[in-house]
Each structure stands twice: as structure tokens, then as C-alpha cells.
Design a protein that fits this description.
Helix content is 31%, strand content 29%. It is α/β, with parallel strands linked by helices. A 6-stranded mixed beta sheet has the order 5-6-7-3-8-9, with helices on both faces. A hairpin with a 2-residue loop joins strand 8 and strand 9. Helix 5 runs parallel beside helix 6. The longest helix has 16 residues. The two termini are 21 Å apart.
Length: 217
């Protein structure tokens, strides 16, 4: 089984504060890998380092065989990202957002088929600001999948959603993996990790304190 993400001894500091402290793990191709921990544990910082959005201070990171900081442009073509805090202009329609993001890539997928897959086709002409929270999150997932990525990062995707919207998104994530895309996600919710993930890393104060399959943990 090949690894799509490799972190070895990764450290990220902000002044005297160490946000990520000597972290090592791998994400296997075709799995849903979850990272769980409290606020401030280092989940988002570590994920942003693997995405190339932040430069780690020491250690090694390899994503899809690339250095995320040096090979950022190539990695953008191969991966999709849903950030913890995402926003679109309030007066943009769902269709317009998908068409805009599709224009950033050389080989985007058909945005209509993607909206249909995410049960959003009937919202194509709706302004994003008029969507429910769960519908907006599905739009951001669609934007992360518009380039048909081999790997997708989902950062606290269901935070703030009602239980039904959360369940709907769980089904979407399972469908993404079933389509052949590896999923790396962070979450606050134990039940979410238990439902979705093949393996889970528990992170606290910048360190991984446990990493195993859900039954193992």
C-alpha cells in the first residue's frame, strides 16, 4: 500500500510557541485518515503544512511524492482543499462559483455532474448566501473536487452543522472515498471519526499521542 502523505519529525513554531512538535505519520492511498484533538492542538497548522500553505520549521513532508512547499503549483493540480474557514462573495451563484474554480485547472471535471453527485444541481442558480449551512459546505466540497483530485483535505468540515446536515456530509465523504480519492480530515467529533475513518491520529499540544485503526483505539 503506497503512502500519499508522509510526515517525519515535523516541527512548526510561532516564536517561542511550538504548535507542531516532532510529528510523524503516513496517510495510505485510498483510506479516510482522520486527525482529532481539542482546539489549539495543532491539527489545522499541521494540515496547512501538508497543503503547502505554511512552511514547517524542520522535519520532512511529502504529499503525492511532492514537496508541498517547493512543488506547490503541481500539488494544487493533484489535491483538493476545504479550509476550516471558507467564504465566497455573497452575490455569486453556485454555478458561477463552480465555473470560476474550474477555470483554474487544466482538466476540471464537469461541474454539472459534480453538483448532481452532491445533490446540489437544483441549487445551481441560487446565490451562495441563500443556501443552508449544510448546502454551503457541500458547495465547498464541490470546489475542492472540481479538479478531480487524488487527495482531498477536509478541515473540520461539519463543525456548526445540525445533526442531519452532518449525517448527509458523512455520506458525501464516504462517496468521495468510494470514487477513489484519498481523504485526510480533521474533526472535533469522536463519533465522526468512528463512523468515517480507517485510521485516526489523536493530537494534543502539538504531539500525536495515539494513532491506530478505530477498533484498535
Amino acid at each position: 500500500m503506497s503512502n500519499v502523505v508522509v510526515c517525519e519529525g515535523v516541527v512548526k513554531r510561532y516564536g517561542s510557541f511550538t504548535a507542531v512538535n516532532d510529528v510523524s505519520f503516513e496517510v495510505h492511498e485510498g483510506e479516510i485518515f482522520g486527525m482529532i484533538g481539542p482546539n489549539g492542538a495543532g491539527k489545522t497548522t499541521l494540515m496547512e503544512c501538508t497543503q503547502g500553505l505554511r512552511q514547517h520549521d524542520s522535519g520532512r513532508i511529502e504529499v503525492l511524492g511532492l514537496d508541498p512547499h517547493r512543488d506547490t503549483r503541481r500539488l494544487r493540480e493533484l489535491s483538493g482543499v476545504q479550509l476550516q474557514s471558507s467564504a465566497l462573495p455573497s452575490r455569486i451563484k453556485v454555478r458561477e462559483a463552480l465555473q470560476l474554480f474550474a477555470s483554474f485547472y487544466r482538466n476540471p471535471v464537469d461541474w454539472r455532474a459534480l453538483l448532481e453527485r452532491l445533490n446540489l444541481l437544483d441549487k445551481a442558480e441560487t446565490y451562495v448566501e441563500k443556501l443552508s449551512g449544510g448546502q454551503r459546505q457541500r458547495v465547498f466540497i464541490a470546489l475542492a473536487l472540481i479538479n478531480n483530485p487524488k487527495l482531498v483535505f477536509l478541515d473540520e468540515l461539519t463543525t456548526g452543522l445540525d445533526p442531519q446536515a452532518r449525517l448527509n456530509l458523512w455520506e458525501v465523504i464516504e462517496d468521495i472515498r468510494a470514487g477513489g480519492t484519498t481523504v485526510f480530515l480533521t474533526t472535533h467529533f469522536m463519533e465522526e471519526a468512528e463512523r468515517l475513518c480507517d485510521r485516526v491520529a489523536i493530537i494534543d499540544t502539538g504531539r500525536i499521542v495515539a494513532l491506530d485503526s478505530v477498533p484498535g483505539l
